[in-house]
Amino acid sequence: MTKPNSIRRIAIALFAAPLTVALAACGSGDDAGAAAESAEQAKAIAPIAAPEGQEWADSVVKTDAGGYLMGNPDAPIKLVEFGALTCSHCAEFATESFEELRNEYVNSGRVSYELRFFMLSANDMPFTLLATCSTPEATIPLAEQIWGNLRSFFETAQSAPSSITEQIGKQPLDQRFVSMAQVYGLTDFVTARGISRDQANACLSDTKKAEELANMTRSEAETYDISGTPTFLLNGNKLEAMRWDDMKARLQAAGAR
């Protein structure tokens, strides 16, 4: 796993760093595959019906921890992901997992999925401010779409003149993330998905929320000893950088079968 330097000081670094066009450092998952094989088998849990006329995956609430929980809030199996929106391995996990995780596991009522955004670098901030700009119900699907298009965002930013990226680092904070989102093509991406340009720019200019996200990352890094993403909690037990097949085996071992 690649470990970002001084991640516990990220609340300060986020606001000092200029735009850097590179995929954020994140966990590789290379060491996690064998872990699932040794997971202790729990008793199989029967599916839990959603309220009449609903599916569990349609239920998304913001949690007291600042995450976004999809599914049965009382599910016996609770999966939490600390994910960075510019992390390529988070994007890989999202691409591999989301449809099956949502349809087969969350909709069974046995598993809840909570996404907690983690800022690995200043690049993550405009992505996260926009992913959380709409309703809680829209946040996880929008994050998944961002991960699905991550490489195109970075290719767009790489084509920008270096003079623009240098200027961004000198801008006031309430303008910086607006400019970063434009360089990535991210503002156009979210406006095509129901967020108005004025709303997007207002979210990107929200320095109070940016500070809250940075402080939340610092707290999570200290509390859970997070040094890269994706990092998971499965019923409170920390798991690092897993591929979906390994995580699926863990969920099944926990009773989701």
Explain the overall architecture:
This protein has one domain: 3-Layer(aba) Sandwich (Glutaredoxin). Helix 2 packs across helix 4 (136-148). It is elongated. Strand 5 and strand 6 form a beta hairpin. The model is unreliable at 1-13 and 28-38 (pLDDT under 50). It is built from eleven helices and six strands. With 257 residues, it is an alpha+beta fold.
Number of helices: 11
- N→C terminal distance: 30 Å
**Main pleated sheet:** 6 strands, mixed
Helices and strands: which structural class? alpha+beta
Order of helices and strands: HEEEHEHHHHHHHHEEH
Low-confidence stretches: 1-13, 28-38
In the CATH hierarchy, the architecture is 3-Layer(aba) Sandwich
The CATH homologous superfamily is termed: Glutaredoxin
What fraction strand? 5-15%
A few lines on this structure:
The chain is α+β, with helices and mostly antiparallel strands. Helices cover 46% and strands 11% of the residues. It has one domain: Glutaredoxin (3-Layer(aba) Sandwich).
